[in-house]
Amino acid sequence: MGIDIKTIGIVGAGQMGSGIAHVCALSGLSVRINDRDTDRLRNSLATVNGNLQRQVVKGTISEDERRATIERIVPVDSFDDFGPCDIVIEAATEDEVVKRQIFSALCPSLRPETMVATNTSSISITRLAASTDRPERFIGIHFMNPVPIMQLVELIRGIATEDPTYEAAKAFIGKLGKTVTVSEDFPAFIVNRILLPMINEAIYTLYEGVGSVDSIDTAMKLGANHPMGPLQLADFIGLDTCLSIMQVLYEGLADSKYRPCPLLVKYVEAGWLGRKAKRGFYDYRGDVPVPTR
Ligand SMILES: NC(=O)c1ccc[n+]([C@@H]2O[C@H](COP(=O)([O-])OP(=O)(O)OC[C@H]3O[C@@H](n4cnc5c(N)ncnc54)[C@H](O)[C@@H]3O)[C@@H](O)[C@H]2O)c1
C-alpha cells in the first residue's frame, strides 16, 4: 500500500493552488501553501475564505466547517516548512523551467518518503520527474478549474512512477470525493489535448474576422450547448496557460495543426492574461465583462 496522505504541501497559490487548498482542507487534510509572491499567498487565503463563505450561504457547509477549514490552511514562506508533508503538489506557472527549478529547490527539504506531484496541464511527467530526486514517488495529479466545482482529476504516471505512488494518489483523490481518469504521459494528456485545440481554433476564428468575441461565444453556447463560450473559457483558464499548453502540443507532437494563434501570442505579450489580469478577450475592470474585439 502507498502512503496515507494526511498533510499536503502546495507550491503556487494562484487559481489552482488555492482551489486545491480549498478542497483538501474541506476534506479534513492539513494544508501548507507557498508562493514566491507574498501578495498572491495572502490573496489566496482571502479567495478560499470568500468561496467557503459562499458555500455557507448556499447551505452546503456550516459556519463551523468554514472556520475549521480555513484554520487547516497554513501559508508558509519556505520549502523547509514542507517537512511534515506526505505529498507536495506543485501548482505554479505552466513553464517547464519554473517547475524544474521548484523541484530542485524543493526536494532537499522533504523526507525521503514524501511524494511529489505536479498539477501541470500539459508538460511531460517523465521529464519533470527527472528533475526530482524521487521519480518513483512522482506523479501528475491534474485537477480541473475551478477545483471545488469540477469533478474530474486526471492521473498521469511518468515512466518511473511506482505502483504505491499511483495507489496513494488514487486514494487521495477518492478522499476528496473526485473521480479519477487515467491518462498516458503524452503532451497535454486527455482533457487539454482535446479542449485546447478547440479554444485555439476559436481564437483563429476571431483573428481571421469570422466573428466577434460575442458572436463566437454565443455561437458555441447556443449552437453547441457549451456552458461557456471558448473565449470566455480561455480567459478563465488564463491566456498564458493556454499559450503554454499549445506550445507543448506544437513542440511535443511536431504537428503544425497545433500552431498557437498569433492573436493569442499577442494578448499574452500585452499582459492581457484573462480574468486573473482583469483583461483578456473580455475586459473585466467594470461591473460587467466587455468584449475587447
Ligand atoms: N488555470 C487552469 O484552468 C488550470 C487547470 C488545470 C491545471 N492548471 C495548471 O495549474 C498550474 C497553475 O495554474 P494557475 O491557473 O493556478 O496559474 P496562476 O497564474 O493563477 O498561478 C500560478 C502561481 O504560481 C506562482 N509561482 C510561480 N513561480 C513560483 C515559484 N518558483 N515558487 C512558488 N510559486 C511560484 C505564481 O506567483 C502564481 O501565484 C499550471 O501548471 C497550470 O497549467 C491550470
Shape: globular
Task: Tell me which ligands are bound.
Answer: nicotinamide-adenine-dinucleotide
CATH architecture of the largest domain: 3-Layer(aba) Sandwich
Ends distance: 54 Å
**CATH class placement of the largest domain:** Alpha Beta
**Residue share in helix:** 40-55%
Mean pLDDT: 97
Q: How large, in whole angstroms, is the Cα Rg?
A: 19 Å
Helix/strand order: EHEHHEEHEHEEHEHHHHHEE
The count of DSSP E runs of length 2 or more, i.e. the number of strands, is 10
Report the uncertain regions: none
Which structural class do the helices and strands define?
Answer: alpha/beta
CATH topology of the largest domain: Rossmann fold
Strand content: 5-15%
The largest pleated sheet is described as:
8 strands, mixed
CATH homology group of the largest domain = NAD(P)-binding Rossmann-like Domain
Number of domains: 2
The strand order across the widest sheet is: 3-2-1-4-5-6-7-8
Counted by DSSP, the helix tally is 11
Protein name: 3-hydroxybutyryl-CoA dehydrogenase
GO molecular function: 3-hydroxybutyryl-CoA dehydrogenase activity; NAD+ binding
Site (Important for catalytic activity): 142
Family: Belongs to the 3-hydroxyacyl-CoA dehydrogenase family.
Explain this structure to me?
By secondary structure, the chain is of the alpha/beta class. The longest helix is centred in the N-terminal third of the chain and has 21 residues, at 38-58. 44% of the residues lie in helices and 14% in strands. The strands form two sheets. Strands 3-2-1-4-5-6-7-8 form an eight-stranded mixed β-sheet, sandwiched between helices. It has a two-stranded antiparallel sheet with strand order 9-10. The protein is built from eleven helices and ten strands.
